[in-house]
Design brief:
alpha+beta; Beta-galactosidase, Chain A, domain 5; Glycosyltransferase; nine-stranded mixed sheet; seven-stranded mixed sheet; 17 helices; 25% strand; Glutaminase_GtaA; GtaA_N
């Protein structure tokens, strides 16, 4: 049985020890807070353990490299650094952070500066069914001055060329649209569709924009960082001049709020724009939003116009995520879901053809962030799909469509489904012959995903369009699934192994799923027969039938997650005894911080722990969810939510430390338990 002592310890740890005990963390202090997370190239974070140092700590790209993004305030002519001022000018002091909060869409920090208090609200909209809003490659920062004494207040913010991925050679421009001011910083001389070593885009433009709010007046300046900030510190305004670009320089805005005791707020928009965003089989794709706003200045101006509507929607969305988590399991589960959402949708781009801007050809592309950079990796889509099942089933179709389109070309001739459609995002130019191949894994996945889209949304168009391809992959499973040849599985760390139980489980459930899609009882019967062989006849279990094995007749045990679709779709492929027995078994192999992926390793993966949590019950289910919650709240980690972590002390790591796979969109798997309660619940 799971001991709640560990969960209590890590919760208390987030409030203990001076000086950070002055900060209130709600609902907990996560490994990393999402700041601006909207695409694989607009992905800014701050480690939870550095919140105390928010005034002097740089934002970080998901890979961990610094991004210059600062907020400074003057209160009665005294200057306070509020955020990101790693090299402060003389005569300034750091504000004091008192509170930090995250929801599904907002990360909010409260900072006191002299007699006044400021709130910094980093808001990345998640609007799964509004492709225009979701595809806009921008995020909001709203700085709110709380009501207080009557003070003269000015607010300043800047960014640098660090957002371009090439801070040593960039150019900038400034333009206006009505009262909106827009800076654009562009890397110079880099190839389209290229990245730097940290995974940042080396083409396109970083964008920073704002407009006056209420009675505030706006001034601007671009030039050397120390010079521009010194100007604000001295006068509270900027010179509206733009020096030639130099390395380390900044573009800045200053809002003069005047003398006020009232609450006041100013909003900035930060983004990264690429007109040609994805290379799909040699044809450029661009953001969906460009069908309506092809010009960047118009697009970011609209984004600022849309703030109130987007913020109202975010309140409803945050409430839905919270209530969904609480009703499925409890507040611990809600905390996990809320931290997962932006990371999922921030790894995806919704596109249309760049030449035609035709929204009838909408597609989506997902990056396998940090693990190997593949594009539209089918098993990554599979790991992510529970969140789409719950919130936005059409994303399954948007992501699978380019996969099916590629597999229909002469460039792909295999009888099983492809692993990915490109080795390096954003180049969806085809699967490399030297790339990974997972015949049973991916063939089963495309069947599951097609059925999930159909079952959640009620549409049959995906299957109707690609039924002949799907039948080919079902036939491959029928001929090869019960005794898999040596090949990779989702746990590719195992290498090429034959007779992998988890692959055979996938084949059995996938055949039954295909039978439902195609209304063919032969496949349903075969899938259930295979399940009986694997479990009841002990082909894939120990002799006593207490656990699944990695391979037939070969110990040790394995955390089998591929029968999750059996439970989700209500297929009755595996007998109830499968789920009852594994419910009893998994707690017996739990290590200090969770259940490992198999009996030979010291790490677990939150993706597959979440799938399994939805197949077991009682204390076993509680243990899986509480272990993930304890992992994100234990204070040991600083990277954006890594889905692989050490469950036992290993090789110099402590139990509960992250292992790898930071910032991946696969956290959609965390919605596996919630998906059992209902599909397509966001309207």
């Amino acid at each position: 049985m799971f001991s709640h002592t560990w969960g209590i310890i890590v919760l208390l740890a987030s409030f203990l020890v001076s000086p950070s005990n002055a900060i209130t963390y709600t609902p907990l202090k996560p490994p990393s807070y999402p700041l601006a997370v909207r695409s694989p190239y607009l992905s800014a974070w701050i480690p939870g353990n550095e919140v105390e140092s928010l005034p002097s700590y740089n934002a970080q790209f998901w890979a961990g490299n610094d991004l210059v993004w600062s907020v400074i305030a003057r209160v009665d002519d005294t200057t306070y650094n509020l955020f990101g001022v790693a090299s402060p000018n003389d005569g300034t002091t750091s504000g004091t952070v008192t509170a930090a909060t995250y929801t599904s869409t907002h990360s909010t920090f409260t900072v006191t500066a002299g007699s006044r208090s400021f709130t910094l609200d980093f808001f990345s909209p998640v609007s799964p069914k509004d492709y225009l809003r979701q595809s806009l490659p921008f995020s909001y920062l709203t700085v709110t001055l709380a009501a207080g004494d009557s003070s003269s207040v000015q607010i300043y913010s800047d960014i640098s060329g660090s957002w371009t991925g090439q801070s040593t050679d960039s150019s900038w421009s400034y333009s206006t649209n009505g009262s909106t001011g827009v800076f654009q910083i562009e890397a110079v001389g880099q190839a389209t569709y290229s990245e730097n070593s940290d995974g940042q885009a080396l083409w396109g433009s970083a964008v920073y924009a704002t407009r006056p709010s209420g009675s505030s007046t706006l001034s601007t300046q671009a030039g050397p960082r120390v010079t521009v900030r010194k100007q604000f510190i001295s006068d509270g305004t900027l010179t509206d001049t733009y020096a030639d670009w130099t390395s380390g320089a900044v573009v800045g805005f200053a809002h003069n709020l005047g003398t006020t005791a009232d609450e006041s707020a100013v909003t900035f928009a930060i983004g990264h724009v690429r007109e040609a965003s994805i290379n799909f089989l040699g044809a450029a794709q661009t953001g969906y939003y460009r069908a309506t706003y092809p010009d960047t200045v118009d697009a970011v101006s609209y984004f600022l116009d849309d703030y109130d509507a987007a913020n109202t929607e975010s309140t409803q969305f945050d409430d839905l995520i919270s209530s969904t988590g609480s009703s499925s399991f409890g507040s611990n589960y809600s905390d996990v879901l809320a931290l997962s959402v932006r990371q999922v949708y921030g790894g995806i781009e919704v596109t249309i053809p760049n030449e035609s801007l035709d929204t009838s050809e909408t597609r989506a592309f997902i990056k396998e962030i940090s693990s190997d950079g593949n594009i539209n990796t089918v098993d990554v889509i599979y790991a992510t799909f529970p969140i789409f099942y719950v919130l936005s089933p059409d994303y399954i179709k948007l992501l699978l469509t380019p996969v099916f389109e590629y597999m229909a070309t002469d460039a792909y001739s295999e009888s099983y489904a492809v692993h990915d459609i490109g080795a390096s995002y954003p180049n969806a130019t085809g699967h490399l012959s030297s790339g990974e191949s997972m015949p049973i894994e991916e063939s089963g996945n495309v069947i599951f995903l097609t059925y999930a889209y159909q079952k959640a949304g009620g549409d049959t168009d995906l299957y109707d369009t690609y039924s002949s391809q799907i039948k080919t992959y079902a036939t491959y499973l029928y001929n090869n699934g019960l005794y898999p040849a040596a090949q990779l599985s989702l746990n590719d760390a195992l290498g090429d192994l034959a007779n992998q139980t988890n692959l055979a489980v996938k084949a059995a459930v996938a055949l039954t799923t295909y039978g439902k899609l195609a209304s063919d009882t032969t496949y349903v019967t075969t899938g259930r027969d295979w399940a009986d062989k694997i479990w009841t006849d002990h082909l894939g279990t120990d002799a006593a039938g207490t656990r699944f094995l990695i391979q037939y007749d070969i110990t040790p045990w394995f955390l089998v997650f591929n029968h999750y679709p059996d439970k989700l779709f209500g297929l009755d492929v595996f007998p109830d005894d499968t789920y009852n027995t594994t419910t009893e078994f998994y707690p017996t192999v739990r290590e200090d911080a969770g259940v490992p992926l198999d009996g030979t390793i010291g790490w677990g993966q939150t993706n597959w722990q979440s799938f399994v949590a939805a197949t077991v019950s009682g204390d076993a289910r509680d243990s899986f969810i509480n272990d993930i919650w304890a992992y994100i709240s234990n204070g040991l980690n600083t990277a954006p939510f890594c889905d692989r972590y050490w469950v036992t002390a290993t090789d110099g790591y402590s139990a509960g430390e992250s292992y790898s796979f930071r910032a991946r969109p696969t956290l959609g798997s965390h919605f596996a338990l919630a998906a059992l309660s209902g599909a397509n619940i966001w309207s």
